[in-house]
Automatic annotation (TrEMBL):
Family: Belongs to the tRNA pseudouridine synthase TruA family.
Keyword set includes Isomerase: yes
UniProt-listed Enzyme Commission number(s): 5.4.99.12
Name under which the protein is recorded: tRNA pseudouridine synthase
Length: 372
């Protein structure tokens, strides 16, 4: 009798739990339907904005929001909250690490525009240009190292991280014994060695394609697989920054009667002297480009560290193949520092325009670690 009573009680408890689960799932579906209805109605509601950001990563402890830390996401969401009057939620295409820069990182932000005169009343969404100007206003009050460069409306089912099709990173190396300009501090990796461009380009050809990149996978990587397809990896030499017109370029647009040469004047004290010539001769700028759908944790910086070792003759192209085949990070040279890394491009397929749009920025397939 007692066993039967316990069985009946257990059945009743289980039925109660099932009812609670069904009720809970029903509420979730109801909330989802309400959110979609609110967003699609002409009267306003949730609006998802596609935000393109540029920032100097030096004073940020990475992109991802962290309590008590200055991060790009934290600063951005705080600026949005000051604009709309309530907290917002954002998600990034790429959570860059401490010290990494971006010329165009992408994120989406969900905003509900409430009336300030009638609390609780939902207003039509702000225009993208209004969002850009207003949020930049509050960002500038916080600091001068982050700004919104583009805003557009996107559907609620758009996701900046999961729908990104391709990411591109640039890495800047300044090589030589010349003194690093103060304008380049924390903007590039300064190495004293002379680098051989042809050797580095040859090493890139070994690494391009679909490989097991375990040798370029830092500890803590959460990717399900070390297999990645590297669509592009190359090195080119570029002018050093900052770039200004040469004396000859200036003369070509200056009337002869107004030129310093015809007046017999020289602001530097000698018209034939270039005070920057010595520094220009001693430093060469190399830019590494890495492009793929997604990357392993610190993969780009580990690749750059290897290319630098090849360029300085510490390793050969044969060594590169052996390191790749070893499938262990213990065989790989030290990775490059964060200061020279830039997220420059993220590509999406916007079905509304039936075309591929490029937003000089980057992202993941949702299963990989994508900080570099």
């Amino acid at each position: 009798m007692r066993n039967n009573l316990h069985n009946i009680l257990d059945v009743n408890v289980n039925i109660g739990r099932v009812k609670e689960l069904v009720k809970s799932e029903g509420k979730k579906r109801k909330w989802a339907r309400e959110d979609n209805m609110m967003a699609s109605s002409n009267g306003g509601g949730i609006q998802r904005y596609f935000i393109t950001l540029e920032y100097v990563g030096t004073r940020f402890l990475g992109f991802q929001k962290q309590k008590g830390m200055r991060t790009v996401q934290g600063v951005l969401e705080a600026a949005f909250e000051m604009f709309v009057g309530h907290p917002v939620v954002s998600a990034a295409s790429s959570r860059t690490d401490t010290g990494v820069h971006a010329t165009a990182n992408v994120c989406h932000v969900d905003v509900v525009r409430y009336s300030k005169r009638k609390p609780g009343e939902v207003m039509p969404p702000h225009e993208p240009e209004t969002v850009k100007k207003a949020v930049n206003h509050f960002l500038q009050k916080e600091g001068d190292d982050v700004a919104i460069v583009n805003v557009r409306r996107v559907p609620l089912d758009f996701h900046a991280r999961f729908q990104a099709k391709e990411r591109t990173y640039h890495y800047r190396i300044l090589a030589g014994t010349g003194l690093l300009s103060v304008f380049e501090k924390d903007r590039a990796w300064h190495v004293p060695e002379e680098l051989d461009l042809a050797d580095m380009q040859e090493a890139c050809r070994v690494l391009i394609g679909h490989h097991d990149f375990s040798s370029f996978r830092a500890a803590g990587c959460q990717a399900l697989s070390p297999l990645k397809t590297l669509d592009e990896l190359n090195v080119c030499e570029t002018p050093t920054w900052p770039c200004f017109p040469t004396q000859e370029q200036r003369r070509s647009f200056t009337p002869a009667s107004e030129s310093c040469k015809d007046k017999g004047e020289s602001l530097s004290g000698s018209e034939d002297m270039d005070v920057n010539a010595d520094a220009k001769r001693k430093l060469r700028c190399f830019v590494v480009t890495a492009r793929a759908r997604s990357f392993l944790y610190h993969q780009v910086r580990l690749l750059v560290g290897l290319l630098k070792a090849v360029g300085s003759k510490a390793l050969t192209t044969k060594d590169v193949q052996q390191i790749l085949d070893a499938q262990t990070i213990t065989a790989t040279p030290a990775m490059a520092p964060a200061c020279g890394l830039y997220l420059v491009d993220v590509k999406y397929n916007f079905t509304c325009s039936n075309s591929k749009e490029r937003h000089t920025d980057v992202a993941d397939d949702g299963l990989d670690e994508f900080s570099n």
